[in-house]
Amino acid sequence: xxxxxxxxxxxxxxxxxxxxxxxxxxxxxxxxxxxxLFCVVDLHALTVEHDPARVRRLSRQAATLLLAAGLDPAxxxxxxxSQVDEHLRLSYLMECTASDGEMRRMIQYKExxxxxxxxxGTVRLSLLTYPALMAADILAYGAHEVPVGEDQAQHLxxxxxxxxxxxxxxxxxxxxxxxTHPAVAARVMDLQDxxxxxxxxxxxxxxxxxxxxDEPEVVRKKVMRAVTDTGSEVAYDREKRPGVANLxxxxxxxxxxxxxxxxxxxxxYGALKxxxxxxxxxxLRPLRKRHAELAADPSYVDEVLRRGAERAxxxxxxRVDAAFRALGLLG
Length: 331
Ligand code: AQP
Known about the structure:
The protein is mainly alpha-helical. The protein has helices spanning 16-33, 52-68, 86-95, 100-104, 107-118, 125-139, 153-170, 216-224, 242-255, 259-263, 269-295, 298-326; strands spanning 3-8, 35-40, 77-80, 145-147, 178-180.
C-alpha cells in the first residue's frame, strides 16, 4: 500500500497557504487512499529564534487544526515529531550522508539565514542541517509520496538524493519518495506582497496573511485590501500580474474552477476581491467551528497524539535500526 508522510512546522499560526497547499488534500484525498502519516514537526521550529511556551502552544494548536481540517485518526496517523525518537536518530545518519555544499545551496537556508542576520540575530546550525532532519522524517517511514506545497520541492529533491546515495553506498534501506503538489494554489502568495509566499513565520507584517483562525471579518478586510496590479483588467498572468493571479488561484482553490477561465467573469478588481473574500470565509467556516469544539476537549487531542506517536514509533524503528546497522554501527 502506498505510504504518505507530510507535516507542518509550529513556527506560527497556520495559514490559508498551509491549508490550500497541503492540509486540505491530506484530509480530502490522501488519508482515504493510502497509509498516511501527518506530523507536527516541532523540532523544525527550533531552527530559528523561538519562545518555548509559544512553540508548545502552537504545536498543540497545529495538531488541533489538523484534526479540525478533517484528518480522521481512524483513517490516518497524526502525531508530534519530538515524541518519536527515530526522527533524531536517523537525522544524524542523514547528516553523515549529505555534504556541506548541498545543505548551503538550499534556498530556504539562504533566505532565512539572511533574514536572521538582518535582524542582528545568530544563525543556528540547525537551520543549515534542517533538511537532513526533514529527510529523516520522510525516509524513516518508507514513505512513497510526500504531499507538499511547491516551496518544499527543493528539500524533497535533496531527500531523494540522500536516499539514493545511502542505498548505493550501504545497501538498499530506504524508499526513494516523490513530492506531489496540488493542481491549484500550490504556492499561495502574501496578499500584500504577491511576489513572496504567504508564510506563517512572519511576525511583523501580517496584513497579507490569512490565518486559519482569523475571524471572518478580518479575512474579508485582508482580502479586500490585497495589493493588485496597475491596470484594471482582470487577467490571469502570474508574471505580470501576480496580485490578481494569486486572488484567482485562491478563488479557484476555494470555489472550484480554473483560474484563467474565472478571470473572464470579472471586469473589476473590487468584484473579484468580494468573491474571493466570501469563498475563503466559507472554506474556513467548518474548520473554525470544528477547531472550537476540539479545543474544548484537549484530552481527546492528547489521546490521538499519544496513539499516533505509538504507531509511528513502531513503523519507524525497524527501518532506522536497519540504517544504523548498514552504516556499520553496532546499534
Ligand atoms: N503559501 C503557501 N502556499 C502553498 N503551500 C504552502 N505551504 C506553506 N505555505 C504555503 C505548505 O504547507 C505545508 C506545511 O508548511 P510548513 O509548516 O512546513 O512551512 P511554512 O508554512 O512554509 O512555514 P515556515 O517555513 O516556518 O515559515 P515561512 O512560513 O516563513 O516559510 C508544506 O507542505 C508547505 O509546502
